[in-house]
Amino acid sequence: MAPETASDDSLGSFGRYAGPATLILSSLAEGPKHGYALTKDIEDIAGVRLAPGTLYEALSRLENLGLIQALAADDRRKPYQLTASGAVALRTHLTTQRRLVDVGLKRLAGNWGTA
Q: Is 42 exposed, middle or buried (0-12, 13-18, 19+ CB in 10 A)?
């Protein structure tokens, strides 16, 4: 199967899968990891445990988009790494999310007296 074309807003097209994709790409931004290492890192950084089906479906989608690539298997473990396109897509997505967070916090502070 040929990879789909990734755009700078690839994660925006993920819909309900944007959360797992963001977590996986953020984990892989640190360096290559296999499934179990991804699961543990995501738990550590986000307090979220991705079910195996969710993890591997997201990995497949990300690989098909060219945002990650599989590396040679190490024993039974198949590591993945972030691609240059994946780094651009993650940066774009996180920048957009940061703007949303900043607006939301500003509005809360203005209307609810909290920061």
A: buried
Report the sign of the C-alpha dihedral through residues 89, 87, 94, 53, in that order.
Answer: positive
Asked if 42 and 23 count as a contact pair (C-beta separation under 8 A), the reply is: yes
Domains of the chain: residue spans and CATH: 10-109 (1.10.10.10)
Q: What is the pTM (predicted TM-score) of this model?
A: 0.82
Mean pLDDT is lowest, of 6-20, 23-37, 68-82, 101-115, for 6-20
**Burial environment of residue 34 by CB neighbours within 10 A (0 to 12, 13 to 18, 19 or more):** middle
